[in-house]
Amino acid sequence: MIDDFDLYANVERPAGHPDRMERCRQCCGHVYKDSNQEVKTPQASFSGNQHRERCVVDDCLSPPQKWVYFSGSLYQVSSTKKTWNQSRSDCFQKGADLLIINSKEEQAFANRFQKYMWIGLTDVTNEGSWKWVDGTAMSTSYWSSKEPNGGKGENCGDIKNFNAEKSWNDESCSLSLLWICEKKLYQ
Ligand SMILES: [Ca+2]
Ligand SMILES: [Ca+2]
Ligand SMILES: [Ca+2]
Hints:
Blueprint: H1 20-28, E1 32-33, E2 39-40, H2 57-61, E3 68-70, E4 73-77, H3 84-93, E5 97-98, H4 104-111, E6 117-122, E7 131-132, E8 156-159, E9 168-171, E10 178-184
Parallel strand pairs: 6-10
Antiparallel strand pairs: 1-2, 3-4, 4-10, 5-10, 6-7, 6-8, 8-9
Bound molecules: calcium ion (3 copies).
One calcium ion binds near residues 73, 100 and 182.
């Protein structure tokens, strides 16, 4: 019964107030659908005796607000294309960063989006020394065959060959591509 799902807003205002959508968006940051398409709220911050407000969860989950949950993180694939740096800025604005792949499972999950998209991998500071956007060195890699092949002309990582487990490619950072943000729920 997704349409009847109740959320609890932090702000006291009458229902139907023009700011309602803004309040819904505040709620939406805490709402996601899990892999079974069930609506979940990962934090209990809307309970208690605050004024109760109803937001239709589909408002929260329609593009471009849609976040997908997997193993402790929320993920959002863009609907527009940007350079790697612009993509990263967009993730920052959403309290997230570009995707960091920490496991074989997360690699498989990312491929399932079937999108040619930027991930949070770069060798811009030191050619050939690939790092994730959190500063950690890339240890396990999933480069496509013959990648990375771009030398100093290709310093940003993407998922390109998504039908294979080894899907990564290095690319010129100034190319415009889709991108994927990851927001860790528990630091
Ligand atoms: Ca991750
Ligand atoms: Ca490079
Ligand atoms: Ca390449």
